[in-house]
Backbone:
């Protein structure tokens, strides 16, 4: 019998000082170990879980570049190639000053399960740099991206490892990274996803994570014979995921009352309209300016959105942004559903609060899989040298999210009818990867 305690102790021993990675592995192991012991004892001697928790390859490299004052700057670049059992490594690149190996290993680990859940043939990886894009000029961003790719190019490829965006990496950065890859390799290929729609990108990729999140929330409500019409939603973040989550929520008839960033939160008691949302986009990071134009709103410097009464909370900013105290506030105020647009935004303690209160808690690896799913569809379109219309991509995205919901229900339904989406996503994502690893031998 596999023991959770000794497994975790071993992971801790091999990965000291990596709290985020340990948190992500523990969250999965708590569900997977009882499942292995009950249904797949053969995975124990095959050391499947031990192997899944060990990256296939970790690459770390120097990124030196010239800033606008012609001074040399030095950053660290990474790519964590976590698991290729079901397809080429796939996952985003994050540019943010707090990026370190613990964060990228947790993200790569989550990506393995998420990508498996999409039912597309993609393995898991993640990368990035401690480069801080805030306050940098367009030319500095370009020079950084070119230097970063001048090392990364040798480790990636359309059939090997296909990066994409994440925090601090959007269409602009993907453009500079792609341009440099193409120049070095003399090869126009689908080596990155999230490309512009007119140079190899897929329609709906920018919208996909936020839209997919709302499709998943719709599935949760459909399953309970309810609709999203009139539901009050709090959203954190004001970036790619938060923005398109808000847009889709509004168009489905829900009332979105908050958006935020690392500086503070806008609370609009009348809710954002699509016009108001477009205005938020023009503010960049200066969210505090919003109430000057819209009197129904207040700005809360240094505060998070979880104090406001809502039916549904959608954390869409970053890891561990929603802690136990926040979870208790949400539950006390009657929140019924928490779906993660970000990766691991809820702490382990917060998740326990949600489960205890029977809140529907949809973890990022299920609820935010729409982004990587459309990245997978971008890879397909690149391979056949075609571009599908928006409606076709959107229909496929919706079908993928419905399928993930079905998988979560299948593996996460408890005796009292409560759906433990975390358990469902962990087991549903694990099984395909584990079987592929078994078939491919000891690697
Ligand atoms: P963006 O860079 O577009 O936006 C990030 C947003 O989150 C910004 O509003 C930022 O505020 C806020 N934020 C970042 N760090 C913090 C912090 N430490 N505290 C409070 N707010 C913070 O990134 P994305 O929208 O792409 O990513 C958001 C989350 O979604 C991440 O967890 C990412 O891993 C996840 N995700 C992204 C996918 C994608 O396709 N892009 C797919 C699946 C998941 P500020 O500007 O002040 O830093
Ligand atoms: O966390 C994620 O799933 C992403 N940042 C998207 C990855 C991708 O390859 O599109």
Residues:
């Amino acid at each position: 019998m596999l023991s959770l305690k000794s497994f975790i102790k071993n992971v801790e021993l091999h990965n000291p000082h990596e709290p985020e990675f340990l948190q992500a592995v523990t969250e999965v192991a708590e569900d997977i170990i009882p499942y292995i012991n009950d249904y797949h004892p053969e995975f124990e001697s095959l050391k499947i879980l031990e192997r899944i928790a060990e990256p296939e390859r970790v690459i770390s490299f120097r990124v030196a570049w010239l800033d606008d004052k012609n001074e040399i700057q030095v950053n660290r670049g990474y790519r964590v190639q976590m698991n290729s059992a079901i397809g080429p490594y796939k996952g985003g690149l994050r540019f943010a000053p707090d990026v370190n190996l613990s964060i990228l290993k947790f993200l790569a680990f989550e990506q393995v399960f998420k990508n498996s859940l999409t039912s597309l043939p993609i393995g898991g990886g993640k990368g990035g740099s401690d480069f801080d894009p805030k306050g940098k000029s367009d030319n500095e961003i370009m020079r950084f991206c070119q230097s970063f790719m001048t090392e990364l190019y040798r480790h990636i490829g359309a059939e090997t490892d296909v990066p994409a965006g994440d925090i601090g990496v959007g269409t602009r950065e993907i453009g500079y990274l792609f341009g440099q890859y193409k120049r070095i390799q003399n090869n126009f290929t689908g080596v990155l996803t999230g490309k512009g729609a007119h140079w190899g990108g897929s329609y709906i990729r920018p919208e996909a994570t936020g839209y997919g999140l709302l499709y998943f929330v719709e599935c949760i409500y459909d399953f309970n014979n309810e609709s999203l019409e009139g539901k009050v939603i709090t959203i954190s973040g004001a970036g790619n995921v938060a923005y398109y989550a808000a847009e889709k929520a509004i168009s489905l008839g829900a009332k979105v009352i908050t958006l935020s960033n690392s500086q503070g939160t806008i609370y609009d008691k009348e809710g954002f309209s699509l016009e108001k949302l477009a205005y938020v986009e023009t503010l960049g990071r200066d969210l505090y300016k919003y109430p000057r134009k819209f009197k129904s709103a207040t700005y809360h410097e240094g505060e998070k959105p979880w104090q406001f009464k809502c039916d549904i909370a959608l954390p869409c900013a970053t890891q561990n942004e929603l802690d136990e105290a926040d979870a208790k506030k949400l539950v006390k105020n009657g929140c019924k559903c928490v779906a993660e647009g970000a990766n691991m935004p809820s702490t382990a303690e917060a998740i326990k609060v949600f489960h205890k209160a029977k809140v529907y808690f949809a973890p990022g690896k299920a609820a935010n899989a729409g982004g990587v799913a459309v990245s997978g569809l971008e890879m397909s379109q690149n391979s056949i040298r075609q571009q599908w219309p928006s409606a076709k991509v959107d229909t496929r995205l919706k079908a993928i999210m419905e399928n993930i919901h079905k998988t979560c229900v299948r593996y996460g339904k408890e005796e009292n009818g409560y759906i433990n989406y975390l358990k469902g996503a962990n087991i549903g994502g694990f099984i395909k990867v584990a079987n592929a690893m078994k078939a491919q031998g000891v690697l």
